[in-house]
Design goal:
Radius of gyration: 24 Å
Strand order of the largest sheet: 4-3-2-1-5-6
Oligomer: single chain
Structural class: alpha/beta
Largest sheet: 6 strands, mixed
Number of strands: 8
Helix content: 55-70%
Strand content: 5-15%
Distance between the termini: 29 Å
Number of helices: 23
């Protein structure tokens, strides 16, 4: 396969449409025409199409790549059929876990579809509050990286490094914020095209409303507000979540992470293409890989994800937990995470060749060592986190008033043995002689004393009792499974529920 899709930027709409349509099945072409007819009817006739905007949220993965291609086909079809078409807004959200390879995939897809220089396309990159025209080499804002690192650490310490709470809870709320910003930016959009089925949307909405109700939010009012009401519910959930994570006195942290809810001036309509297409990537492999130039990068393709490297770190944390907290081996923890990842990939109906590729990276002791080095380098280069900081996170030694601090020091930092009283004093905020201890705590945790003291006053989350926002979120999260492990106390085989991607 060539490094870049060989697409002529000067192709006519008809030539480009015919190229794209050649990769679509008869069912997909009929579905594409049906979506076009629905849009024409919704706006009041084809002559009104140019004033309307249709948005696609583009994560840069294989599935959303297909949605972008499908909507581009609809756009070109309407132009050729009626002489008019809509403006296509494609917005991609980034966080620290999105490697450059994802942006390179997005660029190749835009190039192949002729979107880069088409005035009927708005290509946006949204980095939290910063909205810019897409460019493949846009640097990630340092403020966003710092925010993501702090969220990973605080969530990770409260969950002992469990995959989904550590990396996904804050990120999922950021996705809601992304929709609020992308859909209402500069006059907003009329339609949001999605690959989620109506059933998936209904289940997700019901789950959000249950969480919102448990957080004391007026869910009936939210339901009356449509999509904006859903974002309003998520804002309330997020505010409650981050107050629990950072403390009621940390209003700046809560405000910085508040979900954008748009306004009532316009309410975009959701249109699902789920029932009109196949979502199995192997059903349109040639379109995604050969025509659009999508690559399954070593980091960007990480187990179930093809647009995020964080699952590689989820596996790494499981290995570190087995080695340092449970006195087993790093390999044992990796094996347990692979059991989860295998189940998750099959649940998503990923093709066998991709499942084999993901798992084969760990299929020998030497490869596990290599992947450990890859994960460690990624944590260091992207999040600025050393293995010492990650190990502290899975040990969770600071929560519950430092209940596990002595064991952590003895196991991982014997040079500090006998000085735990000083560490406790620093964590409590005692003034006398705690400066050296505070400096050491900040160095090995990558957290400020303010955040460490917040953890000291907080509890390690009990996922068996839904008494915290984090435990309630995880209870409704489908991305978890029981894996075979060993009770570190008795040495007997047990099942443990873990989460990940």
């Amino acid at each position: 396969m060539n490094d870049q899709p060989t697409q002529d930027p000067l192709l006519s709409d008809r030539e480009r449409y015919e190229q794209l349509a050649a990769f679509l099945s008869d069912i997909e072409l009929k579905g594409m025409e049906a979506v076009g007819d629905r849009l024409v009817e919704a706006v009041g006739g084809p002559d009104l199409l140019p004033g309307r905007k249709v948005m696609v949220a583009y994560g840069g993965g294989k599935d959303s790549t297909y949605v972008v291609a499908f909507v581009r086909a609809v756009q070109l079809h309407l132009q050729l059929t009626h002489g008019h078409t809509f403006v296509m807004r494609v917005a991609n959200m980034r966080h620290a876990g999105v490697p450059l390879a994802v942006m390179e995939n997005i660029h190749r897809v835009y190039e192949a579809l002729g979107l880069l220089d088409d005035e009927r396309a708005e290509l946006l990159t949204i980095d939290h509050t910063e909205i810019r025209r897409f460019r493949v080499d846009l640097p990630l804002p340092e403020r966003l990286v710092n925010l993501n690192r702090l969220d990973v650490l605080m969530n990770g310490h409260r969950s002992a490094g469990d995959g989904r709470p550590t990396f996904c809870n804050s990120c999922n709320l950021a996705v809601a914020d992304f929709y609020g910003r992308a859909a209402w930016w500069q006059g907003g959009v009329d339609v949001i095209m999605t690959g989620d089925s109506r059933r998936e949307q209904a289940l997700y909405s019901a789950w959000i409303m249950r969480l919102a109700k448990a957080s004391g939010i007026d869910v009936e009012e939210c339901r009356r507000m449509g999509f904006q009401g859903l974002l309003t519910a998520l804002r309330g959930i997020g505010d409650a979540y981050f107050r629990e994570l950072f403390g009621a006195d940390r209003e700046a942290e809560v405000t910085e992470r508040a979900v954008s809810t748009g306004d009532r001036s316009m309410q975009p309509e959701f249109v699902s293409i789920y029932d009109m297409v196949s979502y199995r990537v192997h059903d349109h492999w040639d379109l995604i890989v050969e025509f659009l130039g999508f690559r399954f990068d070593d980091l960007a393709f990480s187990f179930t994800e093809s647009d995020c490297a964080n699952p590689t770190l989820m596996a790494h944390l499981r290995g570190l937990r087995a080695q340092y907290v449970e006195s087993r081996t790093y390999e044992a923890g990796i094996s347990e995470y692979l059991e989860l990842a295998d189940a998750m990939m099959r649940k998503k109906e990923m093709p066998e060749n991709l499942i084999r590729l993901a798992l084969s990276r760990y299929d020998s002791p030497a490869k596990i060592v290599e992947r450990r080095e890859v994960a460690a380098a990624y944590a260091r280069d992207v999040f600025g986190l050393s293995e010492a900081a990650l190990t502290a996170m899975v040990y969770s030694p600071f929560t519950d008033g430092g209940a596990r601090l002595e064991g952590f020091v003895e196991s991982c930092h014997p040079e500090m043995a006998g000085r735990t009283a000083e560490l406790h004093a620093a964590l409590r905020g005692d003034d006398a002689g705690a400066d050296e201890a505070a400096e050491w705590l900040e160095k090995i945790s990558a957290l400020s004393m303010t955040d460490l003291r917040t953890l000291y006053r907080s509890a390690l989350v009990d996922f068996g009792a839904q008494q915290s926002m984090m435990s309630r979120v995880r209870a409704g999260d489908p991305h978890k499974s029981q894996v075979k492990t060993v009770d570190p106390t008795t040495g007997l085989p047990v099942l443990e529920l873990i989460s990940g991607r």
